[in-house]
Amino acid sequence: MQKLNVIYEDNHIIVVEKPVNIPSQGDKTGDDDMLSIVKKYIKEKYNKPGEVYLGLVHRLDRPVGGVMVFAKTSKAAARLSDEVRQKQFQKKYLAIVDGKFEKEKGTLQDYLLKNEKLNTSKVVKEGTKNSKLAVLDYEVLKYNEEIDLSLLKINLHTGRHHQIRVQLANSGHSICGDQKYGTRGRGKQICLWAYQLTLIHPITREIMKFQVLPKSEGSWTILKEVKNI
Predict the structure, then answer these.
(1) What is the per-residue pLDDT across 100-114, written as a single tens digit (0 to 9) for each?
(2) Of 27, 31, 33, 61, which residue is the catalytic one?
(3) Alpha helices (runs of H) in 46-150, residue ranges in sequence order
(4) Does pLDDT of 80 surpass 70?
């Protein structure tokens, strides 16, 4: 069972670092998943008998690491889920992508259509049946001319399936190491990381911000060249 990095915990929520290549919840692979790992941690830490309640509020794609919050009570789960729906729940990402951007900052706005059978999404024309609007802001933190890669900070306005990966690929800047939508670094780990999470505490109503950066190794050594993220 995976060792858990707990960033914050109280009686209502637990915030943890999701390692790469671990599913957010159980799937057909039967591999260890974050929901089970956190439940086991709570059960052992507090010596709880029987089944432990833990609410899954949001997900990260399996290959993506970063900050996740889980609810320890059904009341906290309901309130956090409301925050997600009302867009009060903010997730920010770091990504290393192909090429150089014309603008240092910008917004990508597309309509995405999910293919359930293939578990993929694609950009389609506005008005396409079952398509959903996807919006994100990006900021270029660093461009490495030698290897023609850019480090981006991404703020999500909508939470669509594979949204960041699809929108960046469609704009000609696919994420390095993306096995489904990428052009660079095939066979490597995807360079996408959920580094910051801001939420309103479900009980105290305090605004809380949590941050964890990927280890600056491999492709992520580019982080050493950036002072403020």
Answers:
(1) 999 999 999 999 999
(2) 61
(3) 74-85
(4) yes
